[in-house]
Amino acid sequence: MINTVFNLQLLCASLIMLSIILMHIVKKNSTLVTAYILQSLGLVVLLGSGAIQEKSFGLLVVTAIMFVIKIIVAPSLFIRLIKKSHLNLSASTYLNIPLTLSILLGILVFSQSDILTPLLTLLPVIPQIKTILISGILMSLFLIINRKGALSQIIGVLSLENTIFVFGIFLGVRQLSALEIGLLFDVFFWIVVSSVFVTMIYRNFGSFDISKLNQLKK
Amino acid sequence: MILIILKFILLPLLSPLMVGIVRKVKALMQNRQGARIYQPYFDLWKLFHKDEVISPDASWIFFATPYILFGLSILVLVAVPVFGSVESLIPFSDFLVVIYMVAAATFFLALSGIDVGSAFGGFGSSREMTLAALTEGVLLFALLPVALLTHTTNLALMATYAANLPVTSYFAVITAFLGYIIAMFSETGRIPFDNPATHLELTMIHEAMILEYSGKRLALIEWASANKLLFFALLGVNMFFPKGLTQAGDPMALLSAFGISVFKTILLLVVIAVAESSVAKFRLFRLPDILLTGFILGIIAILVAVI
Questions:
Q1: Does A4 touch chain B (CB under 8 A)?
Q2: B292 CB near a chain A CB, below 8 Å?
Q3: Share of chain B above pLDDT 90, in %
Q4: CB-CB neighbors (< 8 A) of A101 in chain B
Q5: B189-211 pLDDT, tens per residue?
Q6: Which site among A46, A108, A139, B227 is 20 to 30 Å from B85 CA-CA?
């Protein structure tokens, strides 16, 4: 049972990492949201399997709330935004796909470097997963930097939050369920506020592209 | 030996059916009824019974290429794992040899394109070689992670051992598979690289090179291209999703492994047809970008595999 759950958790970590690569490659906003759903699903399964293994009701409640916020509410908010603005193909990047992937490759190499050894020794898991976890965080950070669209950047922030959460799970960091639920509500309100903010950007500038914001100077 | 003979006969016979399935799914995706899935067999039959028109400028390369292509396509089909570890005894089933056989076929096809001196053949060959230079690398880097994880370069052993890889290797395998799919689309001339259904001079690659062929030789080339599609589909499903391959040698296990392989192949081809119907043909100058993407995905997979 323990082995099966651990394998499932490793599989979920791989799924989360794959979804980050997908987020870097895709051009459509709707596909980006799908990749985020996939990533969140990985996280929910990861947390849910842990809850079942530990037979923790509190953790199961956290998983259920996470499922509602990250897989139902947030994506539907984003999809509504995309439909309202008719800007499905605006997920443009500063670097082209091969260059973006080259940077991801660099991040993967960096995440194995000696600089991160003190951090890596904290993780009680196998080397491949250590690399995946560290590089996942850095790749999400790069997603925020590389994307021009405000919606893509929001998804980048949420992806960063997801990867830090996964890192925490594998690190064995566990807080009180009440505190974790509180954090999830913070994330929920951040999603709502940022969605409103993006809507206002669209109303003023007719685009999600943050490079258009330099028109503010005029 | 019996297995080799069986594969030698069975797989080339199946390959036109696979083309028919892809065409049927694409037709359904376009709200058309489309031709029957057996239509490629009738097309081949028709071509084999037609006379040929050959340019007086054609050299031996033009005459020999269809036979070389068809021969190589059968050899790579025989090398691909369909049953399991029993196929490891096939002498040319090393993945590097197979990649070079695919490259040799592309080389002769490009040569035959420029052989008769037509403008269409010339630009088709030029385009094909531009892509082939990158595609072979992508293919190599997509299969290398599996070879590194399984510690062998024998295709049958790679596939059989890959079935028992630990969960930690899945990320490398799936990333490599994404690179493989890109190489497969390029090698088999599918959208977004090429459109096998058109003869538009602005976009065609494969069709431009074989424009001078007719009759029996065209039939052989078409059949070889169907064999190539089946080879890539079979290799893709059995290398990256090897569940179903057997390590046993009894007939029932082998038959079941073959059935599962064919089922997985049909499933992959349906997915390919749906994917092809969902994307547009890319401009020629954007194609290296996609291939580079596949190449880097392969490197990422290798890096994760060797950690």
A1: no
A2: yes
A3: 55
A4: 292-293, 296-297, 300
A5: 888 888 877 777 777 888 888 88
A6: B227
Q: Find how far residue B178's CA is from the centre of its chain.
A: 15
Mean pLDDT of chain A: 83
Task: Determine which of B173, B296, B303, B306 to mutate to test the interface with A (most A C-beta atoms within 10 Å).
Answer: B296
CB-nearest to A128 from B174, B292, B307 is B307
Rg (CA), chain A: 18
B263 pLDDT more than 90: yes
* A2 close to B (CB below 8 A): no
Is the alpha carbon torsion for A172, A177, A183, A184 positive or negative?
positive
- At B53, which helix (H) or strand (E)? none
Is this prediction's ipTM beyond 0.90?
no
- Listing DSSP states for A119-157 in one string gives HHTT--S-HHHHHHHHHHHHHHHHHHHHB-BHHHHHHHH
| Integer-rounded Cα radius of gyration of chain B | 19
More confident residue, B85 or B28: B28
Residue B80 has pLDDT above 60, yes or no: yes
Tokens (6 digits) for B185: 């689309």
- Reported residue count of chain A is 218
User: What is the spatial distance between Cα A64 and Cα A45, in angstroms, rounded to a whole number?
Assistant: 10
B287 and chain A in contact, CB less than 8 A? no
Q: What is the DSSP string of A170-203?
A: HHT----HHHHHHHHHHHHHHHHHHHHHHHHHHH
